[in-house]
Amino acid sequence: MSQRILHVVTNVGHYDDADHRTGLWLSELSHAWHVFEERGFQQSLVSPAGGAVPLEPRSLKFPNYDKTAKAWRADPERMALLEDTAGPDEIDSADFDAIYFTGGHAVMYDFPDSEGLQRITREIFERGDVVAAVCHGYCGLLNTTLSDGSYLIEGRRMTGFAWAEEVLARVDKLVPYNAEERAKERGALYGKAKLPFVSHVVVDGNLVTGQNPGSAKETAEKVAALL
After folding, report:
1. Could you tell me the pTM of the whole model?
2. List of residues 6+ apart from 150 with CB closer than 8 A
3. Which structural domain range is residue 57 located in?
């Protein structure tokens, strides 16, 4: 039986300032989907609220808009997947071998406090299957606790979109909090690449995290290797 991947995507379409749009960073989904598809894995989508998934406008512009993202947008069946995603209550974690949190600044709003996503993540992690996140996807791990009450990321090596990258992307005044700092406050052994925006992936047991959009393919490859 093929491995089964659950991709987590956002339902949020703007920052606190509604004039500034955000959403799913498409290549973080399309790169990983392509890697898993090549290996014959089964793939599904879930979002905190279920339903439609908006796209981050900046992810649809050069150089972020690459061939996998273009191919996704050109495929009506793929785009339809983003119109009607499942909600956490519809998901049985036993049906999946890995959960993969995609990014885009939107996830900072709806990933951290989703009790449904926390349940799924906890169950997958505690049975030894793979929990993965790329870029801002690690916001979905910030508040996830294990059965003993400790944070999942406490004492574990990990990475995610760095504060320096927020500043360089000129969104440090728009984001609702400093995700890197919050991860450290929860006891994560956070690390990042010496240079911003280069691919950087950290594997600590069955936890796999990638730093930025350019890390999506490598993150998925590390997940596939573990599976």
Report:
1. 0.97
2. none
3. 4-226
Q: How far apart are CA 14 and CA 21, in angstroms?
A: 4
Q: What is the DSSP string of 162-198?
A: -HHHHHHTT-TTTSSS-HHHHHHHTT-EE---SSTTS
Full pLDDT tens readout for the chain, 227 residues: 799 999 999 999 999 999 999 999 999 999 999 999 999 999 999 999 999 999 999 999 988 899 999 999 999 999 999 999 999 999 999 999 999 999 999 999 999 999 999 999 999 999 999 999 999 999 999 999 999 999 999 999 999 999 999 999 999 999 999 999 999 999 999 999 999 999 999 999 999 999 999 999 999 999 999 99
Q: Where residue 139 sits, what CATH number does that domain have?
A: 3.40.50.880
* Whether 70 contacts 139, CB under 8 Å: no
